[in-house]
């Protein structure tokens, strides 16, 4: 890093102009308006405009704020030899910055992988591994900490909030306070899962300042300790196996789901076409 001091007024003006131009190019590259960036940073539109036009002497906290937003190092702006008009740049950005901006942009739009765990394997004290994933947008997750669980019983079909059937995927937010509704708790000696201590999906109730839980596997409302609480349900995906419903799939796919030679492929297509003609009357 170059440690030369910007003592002359012309140097300070040049520094402001170059810094403002770089921040402007960063904003353009990430496809944001001045209003969008200013709002995100908690600043006014006029403040950001003055920064980009080199009319504003940036305070250190504001410089750090902008650098954090765009994912660049503050030291970059303290080096006199870093010029937005330099010959080793792409447009007004050097290749390293451009690559960083690309990854920042992709990270802001790519969905987040949410793990799905089998209820039977969600056992207290064990290393739990997901068997599937769903994807949510970063905006939707935001500050939430969430997990997904595949329900494996019909103990919550009759609850008053939302029926949950075996094989439904239920998303739980685990960084939210316990409240009345559908939730996940640690329960002991689960009858449907070889008496293991693990996750149960239950209706959470509150009566006379006491917490209780219930599902159809319980003889009655059971006392619930706050230490048993895992999270509250916020979403459910219901699954349907179309292999047993869609008639076009019935009887056509071989057991290994592979067709190794052209003759097998042609025979399969002919068989499907004949079935369509005879049963659906699509073709004359």
Q: How many structural domains does the protein architecture include?
A: 3
Helix share of residues? Answer: 25-40%
In CATH, the homologous superfamily of the largest domain goes by the name Umud Fragment, subunit A
Strand line-up across the major sheet: 2-1-3-4-9-5-6-7-8
Q: Radius of gyration from the CA trace?
A: 30 Å
SSE run:
HHHHHEEHEEEEEEEH
Structural class by secondary-structure content: alpha+beta
**Intertermini distance:** 79 Å
Indicate the mean pLDDT. 77
Number of strands: 9
What portion of the residues fall into strands of 2 or more residues?
15-25%
Shape descriptor reads: flat
Main sheet, how many strands, which sense, barrel? 9 strands, mixed
What does this structure look like?
The protein is of the alpha+beta class. The chain folds into 3 domains: 101 residues, 434 Repressor (Amino-terminal Domain) (Orthogonal Bundle); 126 residues, Umud Fragment, subunit A; 38 residues, no CATH class. The protein is built from 7 helices and 9 strands, in the order αααααββαβββββββα. Strands 2-1-3-4-9-5-6-7-8 form a 9-stranded mixed sheet. α2 crosses α3. It is flat, with a radius of gyration of 30 Å.
Brief summary:
Helices cover 30% and strands 21% of the residues. It is α+β, with helices and mostly antiparallel strands and 284 residues long.
Labels describing this entry:
single chain; 284 residues; alpha+beta; 434 Repressor (Amino-terminal Domain); Umud Fragment, subunit A; 3 domains; 7 helices; 9 strands; flat
Summarize the topology.
Layout: H1 9-29, H2 34-41, H3 45-52, H4 60-70, H5 95-109, E1 112-118, E2 132-136, H6 138-141, E3 146-150, E4 169-173, E5 181-190, E6 196-207, E7 210-214, E8 222-223, E9 229-237, H7 262-279
Parallel strand pairs: 1-3
Antiparallel strand pairs: 1-2, 3-4, 4-9, 5-6, 5-9, 6-7, 7-8
Helix pairs in contact: 2-3
């Amino acid at each position: 890093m170059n440690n030369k001091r910007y003592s002359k007024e012309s140097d300070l003006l040049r520094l402001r102009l170059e810094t403002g131009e770089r921040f402007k190019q960063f904003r353009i590259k990430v496809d944001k308006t001045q209003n969008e960036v200013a709002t995100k940073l908690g600043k006014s539109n006029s403040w950001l405009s003055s920064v980009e036009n080199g009319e504003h002497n940036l305070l250190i906290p504001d410089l750090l704020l902008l650098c954090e937003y765009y994912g660049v190092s503050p030291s970059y702006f303290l080096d006199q030899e870093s010029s937005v008009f330099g010959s080793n740049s792409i447009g007004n950005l050097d290749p390293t910055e451009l690559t960083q901006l690309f990854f920042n942009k992709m990270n802001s739009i790519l969905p987040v992988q949410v793990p799905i765990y089998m209820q039977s394997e969600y056992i207290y004290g064990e290393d739990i591994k997901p068997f599937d994933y769903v994807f949510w947008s970063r905006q939707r997750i935001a500050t939430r900490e969430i997990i997904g669980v595949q329900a494996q019983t019909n103990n919550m079909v009759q609850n008053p909030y939302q029926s949950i059937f075996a094989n439904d995927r239920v998303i739980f937010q685990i960084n939210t306070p316990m409240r009345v509704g559908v939730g996940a708790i640690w329960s002991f000696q689960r009858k449907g899962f070889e008496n293991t201590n693990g996750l149960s999906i239950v209706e959470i109730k509150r009566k006379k300042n006491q917490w209780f839980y219930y599902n159809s596997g319980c003889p009655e409302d059971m006392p619930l300790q706050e230490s048993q609480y895992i999270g509250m349900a916020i979403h459910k995906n219901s699954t349907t196996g179309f292999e047993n419903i869609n008639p076009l799939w019935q009887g056509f796919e071989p057991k290994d789901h592979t067709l190794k030679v052209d003759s097998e492929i042609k025979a399969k297509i002919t068989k499907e076409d004949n079935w369509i003609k005879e049963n659906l009357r699509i073709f004359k």
